[in-house]
Specification:
Blueprint lengths: L1 E2 L2 E7 L2 E6 L2 E5 L12 E3 L10 H7 L5 E4 L4 H4 L7 E4 L5 E4 L2 E7 L15 E7 L7 E5 L18 E5 L8 H11 L3 E5 L8 H13 L11
Parallel strand pairs: 4-5, 5-6, 6-7, 11-12, 12-13
Antiparallel strand pairs: 1-2, 2-3, 3-4, 8-9, 9-10, 10-11
Helix pairs in contact: 3-4
Length: about 220
């Protein structure tokens, strides 16, 4: 999907590749079918379907920057390449050239899969452009509909939201999150990989449209 100065590609599950200028930024690559070298990789939390060493090995090169919460470090240490590791905590920001990264909480409210105390992350990426206006992308990570999302209202161009339920928001809750955040485009994720189905994504899109939010299902690459 092309949006202003970026190309957004869905890699399945919660994995995305954002191409802006000459940079390739991955988020949570898992069971990916591409091996294009990464400049930056963002990991939301240490669960196997978000921090996959097998998939990281496909795209890591010497000098790749990996951004992650503190408890992902031990898994990242298994990589052979000389990467640059950046640890980010909730509420912290990091500037990497034209990309500014903010760490947002991601957690469950009434489930034990992603405790708030773990301080696992969602990310807000602001991608600057010297010619056009910048793009702000929110990757929610594995989360429920949490109060912190209200702070993002009207500040996000593209919201990437989990819709499968069980471990995260379901499609109805995700549509409510989209209504609160009010992005230009909402994109469903975290489905069809042993949890949820394309019907969850379709229901999310339908509910978003009822709320006046543009939503799109991206084709997996």
């Amino acid at each position: 999907m092309k949006f202003k100065n970026i190309e957004l590609r869905w890699l399945g599950h919660s994995g995305f590749l954002i191409e802006a200028e000459s940079l390739k930024t991955y988020i949570d690559p898992f069971k990916i079918d591409i091996d294009e070298p990464a400049d930056i990789i963002l990991i939301t939390h240490p669960h196997y379907d978000h921090c996959s060493i097998e998939d990281l090995r496909k795209i890591v090169k010497s000098g790749t920057i990996i951004v992650c919460p503190a408890d992902v470090q031990s898994k990242i240490s298994k990589l052979d390449n000389e990467i640059e590791l950046k640890i980010l905590g909730v509420g912290e920001t990091l500037s990497l050239g034209e990309i500014k990264i903010g760490a947002i909480p991601a957690y469950n409210l009434n489930k034990e899969f992603h405790r708030k105390s773990e301080e696992w992350l969602g990310y807000v990426l602001k991608i600057e452009d010297k010619v056009k206006s910048g793009v702000v992308i929110y990757h929610a990570g594995d989360t429920d509909l949490i109060p912190e999302m209200k702070k993002l209202s009207g500040k996000v161009d593209i919201a990437l939201l989990p819709v499968s339920g069980t471990y995260t928001m379901n499609s109805e809750e995700a549509a409510e999150a989209a209504s609160i955040i009010n992005p230009d485009i909402a994109v469903p994720m975290h489905y069809e990989n042993n949890i949820g189905s394309v019907r969850d994504a379709e229901n999310f899109v339908e509910l978003c449209r009822e709320k006046g939010i543009r939503a799109e299902i991206l084709e997996k690459e």
